[in-house]
Amino acid sequence: PSAQSTPDGTTIDNNCSSEKYADVNWDELGFSMTETDFMYVMKCSIGENFDEGSIIPYGNIQLSPCSTLVNYGQGLFEGLKAYRKEDGKIQLFRPDQNALRMKAGAERLCMPSPSIGKFVDAVKQTVLANKRWVPPMGKGSLYVRPLLMGMGAALGLGPSPEYMFLVFASPVGDYYNKGRKPMNLLVEDKHRRASPGGTGGIKTVANYSPVLSAQARAKAQGFSDVLFLDAAMGKYVEEVSACNIFAVKGDVISTPQITCGTILPGITRKSIIEIALALGYKVEERLVPVEELLDADEVFCTGTAVVVTPVGSVTHQGKRVEYKEQGETVCHKLYETLTGIQTGRIEDKMGWMVDV
Ligand code: COI
């Protein structure tokens, strides 16, 4: 439909190529929340199906003070981006992959989850309703944040009787600093992020705040972020607080394997592996000892928010190692290919982009 009405009577213009833009200084976008017009909400009670779901004005939500989200961390989030192409059309990057990841997380946290089709449709509706907030091509993207939350009360530990699936969005630019300047990482030697059999491999809300104190310590010393090591031995590289990590040595690209369930299976991670293989690199998913990272030619991070960001240095036990970051780096080649596909500059032979 070219127009749709929200429950409060607001009309949304569904014409994707409309030239209208929100009043945003697109050159100054960073990674912070800019409130947009609408969000999508869909609810269900345990044992029942989700309701129809609808687009409503962006705003606060109500939940029980005794909700399992707030008390027991029964919540998941996702992150994906919508990009504007040169012709003004808007596309999403692999939204089905986020839907599948949310489904896996929901099973782990005993929550009902939307079907893949419902998830993707909700994301599309959210983007369309907020299309004036999708930055012009090359100026950033619309970051879409689907949430799945236990909203009902459970005082004794148990699953919530009620759930909400919500999708909101914000225009964003670079995550760490403008121009994707290289990150300086500090290897965290006190805290561990996840252990085998735990929840490190799902996008539970509870995986992110435990990172904050280590991150704050590192930032106070001038680092961009922290790099976590494995919980059992403190020997192998796992992930940075908000992204996955890769090391390059010659034409071999290595990244920590996700098979132990301690590392978030990033959709950008997976896509970069596929792009690297297609470009002729050898890719190894395996245990990566921290010493190997320190000995790499290049190091970079991947994630929806960080895209592909070079690492300028890693500091471990007082030793700082600096990496190649100038010229034709592997990181730059992978970044250009990925963002080329995402913005329509490069043909999407993988079939990753989905029209809104
Ligand atoms: C993302 O990259 O989309 C994430 O969810 C990481 C988040 C901590 C910003």
Characterise the protein shown here:
The chain is built from seven helices and 19 strands. The chain has helices at residues 68-72, 95-108, 116-129, 212-220, 267-278, 290-294, 330-343, and strands at 3-5, 11-13, 38-45, 54-57, 75-77, 80-84, 90-93, 141-150, 162-172, 183-187, 225-229, 237-240, 244-249, 252-256, 282-286, 298-303, 307-316, 319-322, 353-355. The strands form three sheets. Strands 10, 11, 12, 13, 14, 15, 16, 17 and 18 form a nine-stranded mixed β-sheet that branches. Strands 3, 4, 5, 6, 7, 8, 9 and 19 form an eight-stranded antiparallel β-sheet that branches. Strands 1-2 form a two-stranded antiparallel ribbon. Helix 2 (95-108) packs across helix 3 (116-129). The chain is globular and about 60 Å long. Bound molecules: 2-OXO-4-methylpentanoic acid (COI). 2-OXO-4-methylpentanoic acid (COI) is lined by residues 79, 208, 242, 303-305. This is Branched-chain-amino-acid aminotransferase. One of its GO terms (biological process) is amino acid biosynthetic process. GO terms for molecular function: branched-chain-amino-acid transaminase activity.
